């Protein structure tokens, strides 16, 4: 799964993400006030999804989007902007499901075929994290999901 680092303030990565989304259908989902609509506006100069300012007291965003809405960009991308969510839970997720979400880990060989990448010896994924080949944040996401299984 491709990862594109973006900033709506600096514009970094916006063009790359726009190119990646061309001709596809995508959904912006996440907590309230994290910048989903701001990202949509950065991707589509012609659109003006409603956004809100950060709270002065908490310096966090506030929910502005109240219903899901489909936007069509000039490059053929269709993006659904959704209201913020308070909590996202996992349904039944198997180890195979988890592996399919972290396909980038497959490039790193482990001693054991059924390695969970948590504590087994000679784990290629943990070694890749230590060497910087896999981002610590990405591995942390994997561990959080694995911990809920």
Overall description:
This protein is an alpha+beta fold. Helix content is 30%, strand content 8%. The chain has 5 helices and 3 strands; from the N terminus they run αβαββααα. Strands 1-3-2 form a 3-stranded mixed sheet, with helices on one face. A hairpin with a 5-residue loop joins strand 2 and strand 3. The longest helix has 13 residues. The protein folds into 2 domains: 68 residues, no CATH class; 54 residues, Orthogonal Bundle (Ribonucleotide Reductase Protein R1, domain 1).
Strand and helix layout:
Blueprint: H1 14-21, E1 25-28, H2 36-43, E2 69-72, E3 78-81, H3 95-101, H4 124-131, H5 136-148
Parallel strand pairs: 1-3
Antiparallel strand pairs: 2-3
Provide tags for this entry.
149 residues; alpha+beta; Ribonucleotide Reductase Protein R1, domain 1; 2 domains; 3-stranded mixed sheet; 5 helices; 3 strands
Provide a compact summary of the structure.
The chain is an alpha+beta fold and about 150 residues long. It has helices at about 15-20, 35-45, 95-100, 125-130, 135-149, and strands at about 25-30, 70, 80.
What string gives the helices and strands in order?
HEHEEHHH
Shape: elongated
Radius of gyration: 18 Å
Mean pLDDT: 83
For the secondary structure, the number of strands is: 3
